[in-house]
């Protein structure tokens, strides 16, 4: 396989994974702490709106593109010095997908199912069932996706230093 294609795929994997790591990190160090200091109505309403807004083409392209491009990068770099770093990145990012699908998405769905904040009788209970678990697992996603990004960055550096 041609070196430019390998480089392009690895660069795409690194960029998309970096964008996802940045998104999860931003939620961890700014969005959730900011929302955490608001009242229950504001918190629930804002998270419901965020969870609706994030479901768009840009998000899905990066979220799933990171996995697909990393998997393709592994295949294109088999038996090369960067292979272990690419496999590590793939495993780490797959863990991010599992966490998202198993924990964060179901919590988002339960928050949406609670309905309009104007009709929720106990906003504090809705928030309490959501916030701590979502925030904790998002922090895990941030750390794991950042580690995947680091592995891909190192693989990118290795491939730039070695002959094709």
From TrEMBL:
Q: Which UniProt keywords apply?
A: Membrane, Transmembrane, Transmembrane helix
Q: Transmembrane segments in this chain: where?
A: 54-78, 85-107, 139-158
Could you tell me which species this protein originates from?
Answer: Plantactinospora soyae
> Can you say what this protein is called?
Membrane protein
- InterPro entries given for it? Anthrone_oxy
Q: Which domain of life is it from?
A: Bacteria
> Is Transmembrane found in the keyword set?
yes
């Amino acid at each position: 396989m041609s070196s430019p294609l390998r480089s392009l795929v690895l660069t795409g994997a690194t960029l998309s994974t970096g964008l996802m790591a940045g998104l999860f990190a931003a939620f961890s160090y700014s969005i959730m702490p900011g929302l955490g200091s608001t009242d229950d109505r504001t918190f629930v309403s804002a998270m419901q709106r965020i969870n609706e807004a994030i479901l768009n083409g840009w998000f899905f392209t990066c979220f799933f593109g990171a996995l697909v491009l990393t998997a393709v990068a592994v295949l294109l770099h088999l038996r090369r010095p960067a292979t272990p770093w690419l496999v590590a990145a793939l495993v780490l990012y797959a863990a991010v997908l599992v966490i998202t699908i198993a924990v964060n998405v179901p919590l988002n769905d339960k928050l949406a199912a609670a309905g309009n904040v104007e009709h929720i009788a106990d906003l504090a209970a809705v928030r309490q069932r959501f916030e701590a678990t979502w925030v904790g697992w998002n922090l895990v996603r941030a750390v794991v996706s950042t580690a995947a990004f680091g592995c891909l960055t190192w693989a990118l550096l290795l491939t730039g230093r070695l002959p094709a």
